[in-house]
Amino acid sequence: MKTRISLDGTWRGAYAETCAAPARFQEALDENMREIRAEVPGALETDLEAAGILPEIFRGENVILTQDYENVHYCLARTFDYHPSDEYDDFLVFEGIDCFADIFIDGVRVGETHNMLIGRSFPLDFLTPGCHELFVHIRPAALEARRQETAPFANALPYQYDSLGVRKAPSQYGWDIMPRTVSCGIWKHVYIDRRAKCRVSDLFAYTVSAGEESAKLRIVFNTWVGAQNIHKFSLRLILEGNGQKIEHTEKLWHTGGVVFLRVPNPRLWWPRNYGEPSLYSLTAELYHEDLLQDRYAIKTGIRTVQLKRTSTTNEAGDGEFCFIVNGKRIFAMGTNWVPVDAFHARDEERLPEILPMLDDLGCNIVRCWGGNVYENDLLYDYCDSHGVMIWQDFTMACAVYPNDEAFAALMREEAEYVVKRLRNHPALVLWSGDNECDQSFCWGGENRNPNDNAITRRVLPDVLKIHDFSRPYLPSSPYIDDTAYQSRESISEDHLWGPRDYFKGDYYKNTVCHFASETGYHGCPSVESLKKYIDPEHLWPCLGDRQWLVHAATPDGNESGPYGYRIRLMWNQAEILFGKGSKALESLESFSLASQISQAEAKKYFIERFRLSKWRRTGIIWWNLIDGWPQISDAVVDYYLDKKLAYGYIKRSQQPLCLMFDEPRGGNLTLYAVNDTREDRTVRYTVEDDCGRILAEAEAVAASDASVPICSLPATDEKRYYIVRWSDGEKQGLNHYFANLIDIDFDYYQTLLSKLRSSLTPC
Hints:
single chain, alpha+beta, 37 strands, 21% helix
């Protein structure tokens, strides 16, 4: 039973490049800091934009101007009325401050923060009734980073070394999908948390075993009762859901303990396509004798999860990387989850419009990428209730991070906070140590063993061993264990980027991994969206243009710098599909469409290639759903929520029951029925060409949870377009296939695209 008194809203802000050590807002002003209006949650840059000091940040090249504020101190203050109660212990809670901050009340220092990614709380037992000033002095992360020496052990891209010892979202330092905005501010909620004097402080439930007839839960609880006699306390546990109610009362002998609950005939939590994501509510009620003191409630799901993997694999498929939920293999398909906004204070307001896309697209997994923050609770709750598995990276990406004791202590503190926060979510099926840091050990042609990384091989496993051993842990993605490092053989789970040339070329066609946790392809935003952030005189031509390069996202707008290749890459991809000198490359309008066609066909190919070869392949997590700022990228939905052509293609390719053509083999073009559901489906299907001629028409059985061939047509060297329609008696489906999809006529494809759009039927 908690009561929160919000301290969000408009605060007073002041900034300057130099600052001594103010403890109150007036002291900051006395140091000639410039006052502005500040919003909490918020960020310095967006506050400067609102004040007219920075121009529209996402327009043109303006985002580069934010780099001039990386050395700025930011002070924020507000007053609040405080009225203590004998019934509660009060705590001042900051869910997230970015990043190094000293916190004062009435000039008295109450604490500090040094990690953007975790929250902090401070007891208010010293505070008297009345009006008080809350003051926060945020020191620039760029200057704090200079206190740390770069060791030979470290490795990073040139403009990211200052991120290595600082616990902020790595993407803030510039990424191929994010601008460099080394921000600061109070980016999450602030409130006074009123907690019962005697209370339940923590509750963790996980499934020991689960079957159709019975399940066993282990529930770990902790309470706070001060110095009172523990023997007068009891804990009542109530598990409710799916028409069931199970109660258990435990006399307390200590403030913490463990209770086992047996659940008869449980309703299990299943990922999408495999069953319902059934949830239970678990409530812990703390009693002193017969008087209720506190109530603590969580949602939980009854399910077990394993990861079956091998270190390596080969062309014959002698390996494995597969999630096992409730003893059943799961084919995973979904998206990488990257920042939904460059300024994370705006994440929460954007999520309600974005999250339903996961369901609309048929995703049953998201990978929370390690360059991001740990996402808002809205994501985890949504995935719990919609059967979307979560692969959770710890926040480290594309670098070799420090391994000294100071950094290890930072990561241990962070991991403990994050694990305790997220471990009750049944959707969370995997902890991953980082993104591509194992690979970073070999950047620059070096031959270093990533298994020497103490953070992912010692610190994080130790935290999980203590606080959550209920789900698998992968030290890195891709993970190069010692067997893989010594053998140099192909690994079972991989990120498929490669040359990013023709998407049906040898690299993509011949990959041997079982699970692709990243793969993507560029798609130009719509002309309407481009006009919102690129000035008219810069819209066309795009090659070499600084505004296009800034939104690519080069940190300095130079084509010779980091990520300067990406606009040219997108151009080349469209050129491969439609040919050099094609009409597709003559105007902004045609290029935007051509690029979106290229991306859509590529994403379709990647997904269908993995689904066709089920269970030789077991999952694909494509890159990525949505942009976190206006940019040119691999996302299939742009920052303004405008869906690119690939969105519809992915939606059709990820239908639970989908008919799709494999690439020609032995002179034949084979149609497969891929069924991810748990029931056989009888389908009536037709295959027709672009002239409407029926080439095949029959009935077939789409076997449960399998990919089976159902039809074969003669393959030709012609460029041919096929539309496949089917019905299983309840739902109708549609898909298409373009044979010899390279160097094709742009006008011809547009004609086919019009036919496809007019043929679409509800799935």
